[in-house]
Design a protein that fits this description.
This protein has helices spanning about 1-50, 65-75, 80-110, 115-125, 130-145, 150-155, 160-175, 175-185, 190-200, 200-215, 220-225, 235-240, 250-285. The protein is an all-alpha fold. The longest helix is centred in the N-terminal third of the chain and has 48 residues, at about 1-50.
Length: about 290
């Protein structure tokens, strides 16, 4: 009897192993595909709507794609909106990268007294979201005469606690022997930063650039307050021009404008996604 029960148990284990090898991957792939579909369905439906005319509710692509996109481009003056937003997003992303690298370099390689306390104070700024800082920042911009200017849209965002922490953690992983060898070879602090540290930090630079570029591209509240004219208007504000003043909303044109606005950050994401994953994974390993 014991031999029969052992044989039965062995057979059950074999069948269970075969079931797992055959059906478990199928089930997991089905779950993942369902999750991907649920996440991407709003974007897919928006893309379908951008090809349709006045009629809504169909999941079939329409034939008004050229008319919708051309109308959205001309009505919202999309070329000017994209140019303005590109200026702001690029300026903020590059400014944050430069200041973050310089701050982290000073904290790690110049042995700043009380540097960790300064870093903690900087990190505490994460507890102050943008709506809390709007009134004092806007008063400062008014005194400086920077309202409705690109300086007012960009300079208040140059400081970055996230970027400082990202590069500070990465610079800690760089061997100190590298700095000593550079000093022996006659390389000064600036030469060491430019020739050695920045090249080895390219994945972190790409990750921070991607995060800050998309963050500034999607900004709504601050441009709504500061950019008061068409000369500095951003895409998230200007796309409102596609909403008709009457009761009828032309959803095809509106969604065409929304898809157009998505394209630039999507291109940046596709180009720098590997840097994002590498930079974030490298920084999290240091905690």
């Amino acid at each position: 009897m014991s031999a029969i029960s052992a044989s039965t148990t062995e057979t059950a284990i074999i069948y269970e192993g075969r079931w797992r090898r055959r059906f478990y991957p199928i089930i997991m792939h089905g779950v993942m595909l369902t999750a991907v579909f649920l996440v991407t369905f709003p974007l897919i439906y928006t893309l379908i709507l951008s090809t349709q005319g006045t009629g809504l509710g169909s999941l079939r692509p329409g034939t008004a794609i050229v008319e919708n996109y051309s109308d959205a481009w001309s009505r919202a003056q999309m070329d000017m909106l994209i140019r303005n937003t590109l200026i702001v997003a690029l300026a903020v992303a590059l400014g944050k990268i430069v200041l973050s690298i310089m701050g982290a370099y000073a904290l790690i390689y110049f042995r700043v007294r009380g540097g960790m306390i300064l870093l903690a104070v900087v990190m505490l700024t994460h507890l102050l979201p943008l709506p809390v800082r709007i009134v004092p920042t806007y008063d400062l911009l008014t005194d400086l005469g920077w309202v409705d200017t690109f300086k007012g849209l960009t300079i208040p965002f140059f400081a970055s606690a996230t970027g400082l922490l990202l590069f500070q953690q990465f610079f800690r992983t760089v061997p100190t022997d590298l700095a000593d060898a550079a000093r022996v070879d006659g390389a000064g602090p600036f030469r060491f930063l430019v020739s050695i540290l920045i090249p080895v930090s390219r994945t972190n630079i790409g990750a921070l650039f991607l995060i800050e570029f998309i963050y500034m591209w999607n900004q709504y509240l601050w441009p709504l307050i500061v950019a008061n004219s068409a000369r500095t208007r951003q895409v998230q504000i200007g796309i409102k021009q596609l909403v008709a003043t009457d009761a009828v909303i032309e959803w095809g044109i509106l969604t065409a404008g929304a898809i157009t606005v998505i394209i630039p950050p999507l291109i940046v994401l596709l180009v720098l996604q590997r840097s994002l994953m590498s930079g974030l994974s490298a920084s999290t390993e240091d905690f």
